[in-house]
Amino acid sequence: MPKRFVVVASRFPELPRFPDDFDLAEALTGAARRLHETSTPHSALDTAVRLAVELMPGAEHAGICSMERGSRRTLARTDDVVRLAEEQPDTGPPEDGASGERVRPHWDRLWHAPVAEVADSTRDESGRVLSDLGLRSALSLRLRAERRRLTVLTVYARKPHAFDEATRRVGRLLTAHVGIALDSATVREQLTEAMRTRDLIGQATGILMERMDMDAAAAFDSLVRASQRENTKLRDLARRIVDSLNSPEGGR
Fold first, then answer.
1. Based on CB atoms within 10 Å of each CB, which residue in 14, 39, 131, 225 is the most buried?
2. What Cα–Cα distance (Å) separates residue 180 from each residue in 43, 47, 100, 191?
3. Would the pLDDT of 97 be above 50?
């Protein structure tokens, strides 16, 4: 989708100037609507990487990953180029056979700053993996920051110096919307799972009441104790009990 919008005059000259056909407010409103229409965290992330390529000037590929010290896991991507770019945690020593510390990838800078960039991978030691894939520019922004884990949005381009202040500005605003949508989708998913779990545990409790001739409190307590004894989640044990009704021995 081309990044073509209608310009809106700004009273704030210190903000970066966008192309004359770019309406940032309208674009982000549409992006926010699409993000909040997603029903799960996975669909929110998948929508976010597509929006990043649509909205961030210069972006050709995008991915979202979960990053911990020494490891990185891609959560959503526009294509396999992103997977290849993100699957290696570092780029090796400064030169083949040379001694010294390994060169850390550019995204390691995100532990100390909200944005990290490779302007030209052929001139940046940390961008060696990118240059091998034909990617010359990368811009990474934090989505979430926890004590030991970061969630990061990264956009890539095949030409050097592809990203300017306008890209960074759109990226910061987009990640704010993505973070809110992701939180909302996570809460909705948790509430849905809680409702399903409640119904499942209620069914299992009812089965125990009938089979073992006990009241609801005693049946639930029995279910909890069995869960602890077997080191099994309560919902998983409840599902086994409910599923047992469909087994040949379900009447026992």
1. 131
2. 14, 13, 42, 17
3. no
CA dist 103 and 219 (Å) reads 59
Domains, the chain, ordered by start: 79-162 (3.30.450), 190-246 (1.10.10.10)
DSSP string, 6-48: -----S-TTSPPPPTT--HHHHHHHHHHHHHT--SHHHHHHHH
Q: Which amino acid is at 104?
A: R
Q: Whole-angstrom distance between the N-terminal and C-terminal Cα of the chain?
A: 60
Please, which residues bridge with residue 157 across strands?
A: 137
Query: Tokens in use for 80?
Result: 């396999």
Residue 144 to residue 181: CA distance in whole angstroms = 12
In angstroms, what CA-CA distances link 60 with 13, 17, 78, 144, 146? 28, 21, 9, 23, 28
Residue with tokens 């294509």: 79
